[in-house]
Amino acid sequence: MFNSIIIRILLFVTLAFLVFMGSGIFLFSRSLDIINNILIAAFCLLLGIIVLMRTFRGGPVTFHRIQGAIVVYLLISFVFALLYHSLFILNGSQAFRGLLVSDREELMYFSLTTITTTGYGDITPVNAAARSLTNLEALIGQLYPAILISRLVTLEVEYSRKN
């Protein structure tokens, strides 16, 4: 029951995403681009939830589960890149120093360096919203692998004891 509800929501979000992407061909607007980012982020979050549900179910820890956990980590980074892109659309160069155009590729690079806490410093958040999002992403980037690894080890130990 729960899985069918999630699948239906996922299909609805996908359909809405395709409609908004298609409408971007004929006209461009900032609000449409922000709505597009929100729909993509919602799709990625739902996909991440589904993958995590499969990753943390009972049974042995396999290579596929580890891959699923890594995919969710990268999805989190992509969601933050979309949020940064929306901030840049709203605030322009007031949101980030060192970012001259609103390319999602540049913001994905920034997001990946933030989630891994590498932080080269070539792009820096300037306003309060961008700094708060950056801090949240860096915190998730540190806690997610630590919690994930401990949970996967626990699953493997539980499975080994049963067998």
Characterize the structure shown.
Strands 1-2 form a two-stranded antiparallel ribbon. The model has no long low-confidence stretch (mean pLDDT 86). α1 (2-26) runs antiparallel to α2, α2 (30-55) runs antiparallel to α3 (63-91) and α3 crosses α4 (104-115). The chain has a single domain, classed as Helix Hairpins. 78% of the residues lie in helices and 2% in strands. The two termini are 30 Å apart. It is flat. With 163 residues, it is mainly α.
Write the layout of secondary structure elements.
Elements: H1 2-26, H2 30-55, H3 63-91, E1 96-97, H4 104-115, E2 124-125, H5 128-162
Antiparallel strand pairs: 1-2
Helix pairs in contact: 1-2, 2-3, 3-4, 3-5
Quickly list its features:
single chain, 163 residues, mainly alpha, Helix Hairpins, two-stranded antiparallel sheet, 5 helices
Q: Care to give the gist of this entry?
A:
The protein is mainly α and 163 residues long.
Mean model confidence by pLDDT: 86
What general outline do the C-alpha atoms trace? Answer: flat
Order of helices and strands: HHHEHEH
Query: Any guess at the CATH architecture?
Result: Orthogonal Bundle
Number of structural domains: 1
Oligomer: single chain
